[in-house]
Amino acid sequence: MAAPEERTAPPAAASGDRSPWNWLLLIPIVLPLLTFLFNGDSPRLLGFPRFYWLQFAFIIVGVSVTTLVYQMTKKR
Hints:
By secondary structure, the protein is mainly alpha-helical. The chain has helices spanning about 25-30, 50-75.
């Protein structure tokens, strides 16, 4: 009979994975959950109610925050 193979533990995560910059990624998650921000019709922007143009603003905020966190945490 063959001896069972020994399994080794996976390597520990690099310490750079726990950057405080990662906390900024909560902004694009929490911001759209704040319903009081878009619970209304005015102000209108180019005829669009607040809800619609605010959704585009959330996308811009999400992309900006993600780009910032990536740039600040990437390994050089």
